[in-house]
Amino acid sequence: MLGIDPGLTRCGVGIVDVAPDRSAQLVHVGVVRSDPSEPIEARLALIATGLRAVIAAHRPDVVAVERVFAQHNRHTVMGTAQASGIALLVAGESGLPAATHTPSEVKAAITGYGSADKRQVQAMVARVLRLDALPRPADAADALALALCHAWRGGPAAAASGPLTPAQRAWADAERLSRR
Amino acid sequence: MLGIDPGLTRCGVGIVDVAPDRSAQLVHVGVVRSDPSEPIEARLALIATGLRAVIAAHRPDVVAVERVFAQHNRHTVMGTAQASGIALLVAGESGLPAATHTPSEVKAAITGYGSADKRQVQAMVARVLRLDALPRPADAADALALALCHAWRGGPAAAASGPLTPAQRAWADAERLSRR
Q1: What is the pTM of this model?
Q2: For residue A88, what is the nearest residue in chain B, using CA coordinates?
Q3: ipTM (interface pTM)
Q4: Architecture of the A2-178 domain
Q5: Are B82 and B90 in contact (CB under 8 A)?
Q6: How confident is the prediction along chain A (180 residues), in pLDDT tens digits per residue?
Q7: How is chain A split into domains, by residue range?
Q8: CA angle, corner B159, sides to B155 and B160, nearest 5?
Q9: B74 vs A: CB within 8 A
């Protein structure tokens, strides 16, 4: 599962391997950057090249991209939308199905409620993936959260059922804690 | 000069050859379409393929893309922004410089004022290119207007000066008429 948090300057990419019991493993996390001083057409080409390299190296089955809204952050939203178009294009050209999720869908899937703050989401991602530290930068953490969200909400793993695994219990516990 | 009016369902493409005296000839006009019932990643891939085919067939020197604003047409603006990202990406990957122009820059360059209506822009494009009819659909006409705008505003032809050519006179006359 490849998650992409689209952005012109920093495009977060995170790959997780999610088992039918919903437990997850970190495969890859990183950021594709482009230099703001470069022309836009060169920046988008750089982002496409970076995303294609991640797909070629890790061969994900599905790509999840954060959905961009017109009303957010007007100043940068067009660049973010263009980067999301590149992410979806690269998925399509690689023959991979793509899905989009809103930030609140991601928050709800990861922490249990849609208005969780970024820090809570990151802490949960680190916990689920058994990382020693929060993934950095934030765009990379968001990409991992997206990948987990897609796996848990709609991926093939979502259809599986059964008793809680240790990872699920940790998730449910932390979810309860985060609601206090 | 390749002009692209980005859109998910219809992406207008227009190529014009502009002489140093600002006179212009139609080289190609058309629309790259994608089916709204297809998934977004397949639609963007189709648009990229269509635009690459136009570039391969006509080998333009420059690409001009309409600039998309967050505040317009909220419902479709994200798809339009994604399509514009694909247009810019294809330019960058073809090694072509790209420029963006706002709709009012295009109107001002073509008709002489930024609040001209679409019909006036189309009529002027038809006149400048000596077409028997208005180019159809509107997206294709907009793409031609963009290409002419870029050539006249900032292209190499813009630096040329000298007495008015017949095409320039026709343009100046029509501009005066359209202001009445």
Answers
A1: 0.83
A2: B41
A3: 0.81
A4: 2-Layer Sandwich (3.30)
A5: no
A6: 999 999 999 999 999 999 988 899 999 999 999 999 999 999 999 999 999 999 999 999 999 999 987 666 566 889 999 999 999 999 999 999 999 999 999 999 999 888 889 899 999 999 999 999 888 888 999 999 999 999 998 644 433 334 445 555 555 555 555 544
A7: 2-178
A8: 115
A9: yes
